[in-house]
Amino acid sequence: MLNKYKGCLLGAVLGDALGMPGETTVSRFIGVTLGFKRAYKGHPNHDLLPGQYTDDSQLILIASRLLAEASWDPETYAKELLRTYNLNKFRYPDGTTYAACKRMKTTDDLIGSGVYSDSAGCISLAVPFALAYKDRKEMAPKLLEACSITHTHPGVYAATLGFALLLNTLIETENTAAAYQALLTAAQNMDQDLAARLNNAIRIEGTGMPIDDALAAIGNSSSVYHTLPLAIFLCKRYDIPEELLAYASACGGNADTLTLLCGAFAGARYGIAALPQELITQLERKNEFEILAEKLLDPKKPEQPTAAEPKTETKSQEEPESIYDSGWEPE
């Protein structure tokens, strides 16, 4: 089980780092190769080094730290997002996340500042929540609560919860058909437009349509109505993790989030041993994410305050231990 947990969490971050330089660019499927690259000069991610991740994995890191210590609450999560925003440390943030944080700052409303947008900016939260909760009924309201801090669109709720259920089912049952069905059922129950787009992506894959034509038909924008269906198309098309990650990272558009989803799927399906180890070793904060995967498998039980030891307010981590300056450099 730990192999799958590490695979899912590090696979997601690996995918994010692989897709980082392709974000907002056009698709390029000729001569596809797999490897870390630097974004072109002038790109919003140009300051990131090969092997570094984007804002998607920043959200994973914040949520994983809270969930691993069984100290999840939406207000603490919102405070960490706001702190990242105030320090100007978000890495080319999703526009909706940025707008929500700006609203938090101006209104002092940590919980009610979410924005009605269908962007996929919080779908990465599906990964740590899928790992932290064995009980899907317990997971669902907490994950939707986390999404609502930044995103309030029903399509985003359906996509994020659906993908979390897919990962959770895949890890627990090792049954890909059951995992896909968990996603489709959630989408059908929560947002029929998303369900129709997912089913269409699966239908397109079944026809054998070339990837460039499929991308044009499905879409590769930052909307969950494009990002998640395209990810499912790719996961069904490419069984070999290296191929899956290579083609996902070459899709342009929302390539970072797209490849993150594909990496999480591949890691949950095959385990970390099946992912390209030469890239895993070069991944930013690789050791910390491995430790977080171990903790998410068996989250720490929250301590109950005694009469002699009243509960005190949890303070934010000090800067050296934060998500901001890891001191990491590529090997």
Architecture overview:
- This protein is mostly helical and 331 residues long.
- The chain has a single domain (2-24, 51-298), classed as ADP-ribosylation/Crystallin J1 (ADP-ribosylglycohydrolase fold).
- Helix content is 58%, strand content 0%.
- The protein contains 15 helices and no strands.
- The two termini are 29 Å apart.
How many angstroms separate the termini? 29 Å
> What would the CATH topology be?
ADP-ribosylglycohydrolase fold
Helix content: 55-70%
Number of helices: 15
CATH superfamily: ADP-ribosylation/Crystallin J1
The residue ranges in which pLDDT falls below 50 over 5 or more consecutive positions are: 311-321
Protein name: ADP-ribosylglycohydrolase family protein
Region (Disordered): 294-331
Biased composition (Basic and acidic residues): 294-303
Family: Belongs to the ADP-ribosylglycohydrolase family.
